Amino acid sequence: MTLTLDKIYHAAHILKTVARKTDLIAAPSLNPESDIYLKTENLQVTGSFKVRGAYYKISQLTAEEKAKGVIASSAGNHAQGVALAAQQSHIPSVICMPDGAPISKVEATKAYGAKVCLVKGAYDDAYDYACKLQKEKGYTFIHPFNDAQVIAGQGTVGLEILDQLPDVEAVLVPVGGGGLISGIAYAIKQLQPECKVYGVQAAGAPSMRDSVEQKQAVTLDSVATFADGIAVKHPGDLTYDLVRKYVDEIVTVTDDEIAAAVLALMERQKLVTEGAGAVSVAAAMYNKVDIKGRKTVCLLSGGNIDVNILSRVITRGLVMAGRNSTLTIELEDKPGQLTGVSEIISRCGGNVVSVSYRQGDTNMAITSCFLHIGMETRDHAQVEQIKQELQTAGFKLASHPA
Fold it and tell me: Is the distance from CB of 330 to CB of 363 less than 8 angstroms?
């Protein structure tokens, strides 16, 4: 099957009883220079857009294919989409997941009735094992992105965006294997070609960006990002062709930028997203693409973040935003020093949350020591003000934490 607009409309019709038409929410504070809206697929059934493609694909299988049962490989979100679709179609499902997948995603997949096989390594290793099982057992394979029917299902998000914001000027979409952006870009460029479509990848997993730059689908040696939903070494051949044809640009964001976006979405919009789901907002917040003065939709692709990772992400996001900071001060070890330091921090509006002390190095005076101060602050400007005030008062800041 080749991708057509008719197929995307057909998928939208099939999905009416299964997938939510997720809200489009204005979020002006995320980038005041742009008119930003959030497409909240993190609030979709199963917590991500993946149910759209998986359900549409399974709905189009023949009775013979359904009888064999289905198999899929997934870092977590496609797993849940396939498991739910198989459960509703009353067919068995087997899902191969990388062993590093968040526990919450593994457990949720099992809860939808799937048999889960954990495979050592990244998504691509789980995919290889799923292919091996498929050959051995004769299951019907449900690819997470390199399949025209799956892409048509994901493309229904594009139809909804155009319906909800007809004068949209730019759409930012997370990219892993490329199924979501392929469907969205195809739909939008057919119906509103002047609208820009930008892809966003994690800097530690830029397989699609590198493929487009090198004009061929490349395979990365390794991927390194907490955004597990888009940690893909090799994009789909079908998705690569569609992205090259319909996507205007692909940019990357760092894990620190993603963490800051997850935090901003929680604090300002009361929305929980996983790392992969927040990369579009990270790109908007850090001006990775030119969206100044443009009506922009950031797609929040999923909200299935492990709570253990979430606490770390919040901490990292606070540091990235200048809200948590640490200072190391070289002091002469005598009474009253801590009082002087804390008085300055207090006067500048900072809040001391931790203090630790260590004797100085052997190349320092015998009476010297290191003072480590952890602070809650408003932003980077306030941190700089505190540093300046301390130095003006004669305190010596260590260039790096000792």
Answer: no
The 8-class DSSP code of residue 144 comes to: S
Q: 322 in the Ramachandran plot: left (φ > 0), alpha (ψ -120 to 50) or beta?
A: left
CA angle at 188 for the pair 186 and 193, rounded to the nearest 5°: 100
Residue whose C-alpha is closest to residue 142's, from 43, 208, 51 = 51
How does strand 35-40 pair with strand 295-300? parallel
At residue 202, the pLDDT reads: 97
Note whether 223 and 205 are within 8 A (CB).
Answer: yes
Q: Which pLDDT tens digit goes with each residue over 52-81?
A: 999 999 999 999 999 999 999 987 899 999
Nearest Cα neighbor of 23 from 8, 9, 37, 40 is 40
Give a three-class secondary structure readout of 255-281. Answer: HHHHHHHHHHHHHHHCCCCCHHHHHHH
User: How far apart are the C-alpha atoms of 104 and 305, rounded to whole Å?
Assistant: 8
pTM of the model: 0.87
Cβ-based neighbours of 16, under 8 Å, separated by 6 or more: none
Distance CA 66, CA 139 (A): 9
Instruction: Give the span between the Cα atoms of 265 and 7, in whole angstroms.
Output: 33
Q: Kindly list the catalytic residues.
A: 50, 301
> Are residues 70 and 142 in contact, defined by beta-carbon separation less than 8 angstroms?
yes
- Residues 229 and 201 sit within 8 Å (Cβ to Cβ): no
**Distances from the Cα of 89 to the Cαs of 18, 93, 337, in angstroms?**
12, 10, 70
Distance CA 150, CA 186 (A): 13
User: H or E stretch including 77?
Assistant: helix 77-88
